[in-house]
């Protein structure tokens, strides 16, 4: 372990922002945005960051894992984390992300180089919709959002649909496409439909030129996805909640998706996500990672995309970066130098680790516990 410094500190930080308006999607709503951050620091003052979503039991589980890291050497701790069984997978994702960030910073290399030679230096982001606006006409909401994301440099927008009458929503999509040309479109139903409804509506969505239909049915019924997918006229996407390569392997084996969407903040971290992508690619299934949290998760996803091999016809334009556009200072304000879109592209940071600098004053201002 020569040249290494042991981990001196490992913290769990719950960040919260109260939204200026309630965020609605098809099957629910939220009034806050929450992130669970992991901050690890070695005795030389090198810091690594990780992030996941706040879910039940995550904070306490993260505290326990972080306590186990103190006084360990980073490389040995990373090996132990990879072998850890029975741990909260979302927590393990964030802790592993932070350890990867720390280890790469100690080596002076981008995190992606822990897992291979980068294949690209930039990717195209697509906007992931903020959802519905209470009391505002649907066409007005979607048109304003579409115009805003196009002006911000996005080339594609994923609408969140499924809350209202399907006929009304389909008509609204047609009107918005006419009002705001020049974008590619996708749709995320957030598991609001049945298999029967999906089968009825998918042809109409396909006629609108949508690139994929995301999680139209409850995601705990993967056999339903496998049954309906072959008959759909458009690619079926999903899998953001998959917690391990094993779970993903089962989804791939049964043919549940045309495009699988693991999240580095859920599936165990960068290495498990890349294993999921490789298994999917071997079966001709595309991989577009899910990323709908803060700037740390976004930066980790960029590092994934640097080394993600693309072998599916569904991804002929190359890998895409999901970029939430909802109100979220953990994404927009957390970094000293924000991740920005230029000419429809986002550069993959090539500095050490995640290639970002977290503004710890902003962390302190948003911290709940």
Output the keywords.
3-stranded antiparallel sheet; TIM Barrel; 369 residues; 12 helices; 21% strand; alpha/beta; 2 domains; Enolase-like, domain 1; 10-stranded mixed sheet
Query: How much helical structure, as a percent, in the residues?
Result: 25-40%
In CATH terms, the superfamily of the largest domain is Enolase-like C-terminal domain
How far apart the termini lie comes to: 34 Å
Question: Which whole number gives the mean pLDDT?
Answer: 95
N-to-C order of helices and strands: EEEHHHEHEHEHEHEHEHEHEHEEH
Overall geometry comes to globular
Number of domains: 2
Rg on CA atoms, Å: 20 Å
The protein's oligomeric status is single chain
Named at the architecture level, the CATH assignment of the largest domain is Alpha-Beta Barrel
**Helix-strand category:** alpha/beta
CATH topology of the largest domain: TIM Barrel
Question: What is the CATH C-level name of the largest domain?
Answer: Alpha Beta
Total E-strand runs: 13
Low-confidence stretches: none
Q: Give me the number of helical elements.
A: 12
The main sheet comes to: 10 strands, mixed
